[in-house]
Amino acid sequence: MKKKKRNGLELTYHLMMLPGLLFLIIFSYIPMVGIIMAFQDFVPAKGLFHSDFVGLKYFRYMLGLNDIWEVLRNTVAIALGKIFIGTFMAIAFSILLNEISIKLMKKGVQTIVYLPHFLSWVVLASVVVNIFSLDGIVNRILGSFGIQALNFLGNPAIFPKLIVATDVWKEFGYNSVIYLAAITAIDPGLHEAAAIDGAGWFKRVIHVTIPGMLPIILLMAAMSLTGILSAGFDQIYNLYSPIVYETGDVLDTYVYRIGLVGRQYSFGAAVGLLRSLVGLVLLVSANKLTMKLTDEKIF
After folding, report:
1. pLDDT surpassing 90 at residue 98
2. Residue 209 and residue 77: Cα distance in Å, rounded?
3. So what's the pLDDT on residue 71?
4. What fold, for 65-294?
5. Which letter does DSSP use for residue 200 in this model?
6. Confidence band (pLDDT; 50, 70, 90) for 159?
7. Torsion angle, CA of 271/277/283/286, rounded to 10 degrees?
8. What pLDDT, in 10s, does the model give residues 103-126?
9. H runs (alpha helix) in the chain
10. Backbone torsions φ then ψ of 40, nearest 5 degrees
11. Distance (Å, whole) CA 185 – CA 15
């Protein structure tokens, strides 16, 4: 009787998973058939299964382009900036937020800082453009100090920094939720013992809080490695322009411009496939690194 009840409960759980599984199959697995385009001279009129196969032609062509190495460099630089600065800000914010003893104030700060995460870059891009345009509030403030206006959105040297800074602003509050949970799991007795030994707040953070958070920090850092070739298509697409392609163009936007806008479908598919393969290698490596450092695994 118990076995039948357990089987019925498991069936209920599987039925609950079914919508998500169908969504995953329809939007993630079925589109993978398009990988074939990377090995074809794809012509839309002929279709996916009647276009001529050309083997690794587009991969060789891709690796011979100077543009692809520039785009790869931009992608890695922007992604690493987002990962390192974003992680540091999330950890620092979670530590400071944990020190707020007034519950109402703590919840208010959390709400204000978390809110940008739930807004689309389609919305936030217009806000960023208005703030950092030549006649925006930032340049007005700089002008009041006698500093010449900066073209944040049109200067190749400044644009990547703006991308990293605005992404960190949008995401660090939400990412700090995990670190805040890690802090609350630390035994308060450790802080009390350190305080009795004469350790001040900063020393307790260094010697108690940070070591207590370390497994989660390493786990999150390892998981972040998988996104190193994904610097944020929606953000960059809504903010960049041809004048900053030199330093702002990343793999996702490059594939979009070349593959869809330029109608080089096979070449775009080859670039996208290479990105996915590198991401897979990084994911497996991150999983092994996490297991080695924290005795936990991502999957």
Report:
1. no
2. 30
3. 87
4. MetI-like fold (1.10.3720)
5. -
6. very high
7. -90
8. 888 888 888 888 888 888 988 999
9. 2-24, 57-63, 66-98, 103-114, 121-132, 137-144, 159-184, 188-196, 201-204, 210-224, 233-239, 245-248, 251-255, 265-294
10. -125, 160
11. 34
Note the pLDDT tens digit of each residue in 137-152: 999 998 888 888 888 8
User: Is residue 5 scored above 60 in pLDDT?
Assistant: no
Contacts for 122-131: CB closer than 8 Å, 24+ residues apart: 122/234, 122/238, 124/166, 124/170, 125/235, 125/238, 125/239, 128/162, 128/166, 128/239, 129/153, 129/239
- pTM here is 0.82
Q: How far is CA 116 from CA 103, 123, 131, 166, in A?
A: 21, 10, 15, 10
- What amino acid is encoded at 168 in this protein? V
User: Looking at the chain, which residues constitute the CATH 1.10.3720.10 domain(s)?
Assistant: 65-294
Going from the C-alpha of 152 to that of each of 122, 129, 293, the distances in angstroms are 18, 9, 40
